[in-house]
Amino acid sequence: MSMNLNEVQRASQEQFARQSDRYGKGHILENVDDVRAALEHVTLPAQARALDVATGGGHTGLLLAGLGHAVTLSDITQAMLDRAGETARERGLSVETRLHSAESFPYANDVFDLVTCRVAAHHFSSPESFVRETARVLKSQGWFLLIDGTVEDDQPEAEEWSHQVEKLRDPSHHRFVTPRTWQRYCEQSSLCVVHSGLTPFKMPDLNWYFQTAATTAENRRKVLELVRTAPESARKLFRLGEEDGKIVWWWQRLTLVAQKAAKAR
Ligand SMILES: C[S@@+](CC[C@H](N)C(=O)[O-])C[C@H]1O[C@@H](n2cnc3c(N)ncnc32)[C@H](O)[C@@H]1O
């Protein structure tokens, strides 16, 4: 399928096509306890129809498939879908895979019981369009489950610092969206937020984080300088520190669960 991609989408596609083998077994995203916890806010029918957007290694969608739901894994990067499909086969799970962007879906209105998206939306060129599309394809009273890095509201200096770091480390990073802005996108699309919470999540080693994105030597130097000169607000908010000679910090991760409004009769 050919897609007309904008610059931000193309950067993601190129980055993840190169790095696809790093997101499967052994990646920290393989642990889906965060998805399990978020699902406690959701009530699904048996064999719900679920769409996992920007599925990457497929960890979120495959958890749902393992629970007996009918799952479509989608991503903008074919190599990622291939990997996720292989993992599904290894686990004896049957899923559909679809190549498309998060900003525009090839589905009819009102077809899914659940749309999930985990640790990916910070790459999207338009998270607002993504939420609009999510609301469109959800059935009446269907669920939206989002997990992504964020920076809490009203922390502009720390937000800018983390943006500089993430962008240098991985040029396909677009921007973390703050919780209040996600809430606004949901409200604009008739999605009612039923849960929104921040959890700290450890970045265990800056060198590992560089390798994951194949960060260039020059950008590694720039990030190290940003770490050295980080403002107090960022140091405090992200608990920036050193452990056993490794640079570590704690991301803020947002879990947001929203439900589509019931159709007026
Ligand atoms: C870190 S991985 C996702 C992790 C995965 N959701 C999980 O739960 O393990 C990020 C994925 O986002 C995809 N991606 C980035 N920008 C995208 C976009 N605009 N539309 C769809 N997928 C996108 C990348 O191809 C990549 O596979």
Textual characterization of the structure:
- This protein has 265 residues and is an alpha/beta fold.
- It contains ten helices and eight strands.
- Helix 5 (127-137) packs across helix 7 and helix 6 (156-169) packs antiparallel against helix 9 (217-228).
- The mean pLDDT is 95.
- S-adenosylmethionine binds at residues 9, 12, 16, 23, 29, 54-57, 59-60, 75-77, 80, 101-103, 118-120, 123-124.
Counting DSSP E segments of at least 2 residues, the number of strands comes to 8
Distinct ligands, ions and cofactors found in the model: S-adenosylmethionine
* Strand/helix succession: HHEHEHEEHEHHEHHHEE
Largest sheet: 8 strands, mixed
Number of H- or I-type helical stretches: 10
| Rg, alpha carbons | 18 Å
Low-confidence stretches: none
Q: Could you give the distance between the termini?
A: 38 Å
Strand residues, percent = 15-25%
Q: What is the helical fraction, as a range of percent?
A: 25-40%
Class per helix and strand makeup: alpha/beta
Q: Given the C-alpha coordinates, what overall shape results? A: globular
Mean pLDDT: 95
What is the fold's blueprint, element by element?
Blueprint: H1 7-19, H2 33-39, E1 49-53, H3 59-66, E2 70-75, H4 78-90, E3 96-99, E4 112-118, H5 127-137, E5 138-150, H6 156-169, H7 179-188, E6 191-203, H8 206-213, H9 217-228, H10 232-237, E7 241-243, E8 246-260
Bound molecules: S-adenosylmethionine (SAM).
S-adenosylmethionine (SAM) binds at residues 9, 12, 16, 23, 29, 54-57, 59-60, 75-77, 80, 101-103, 118-120, 123-124.
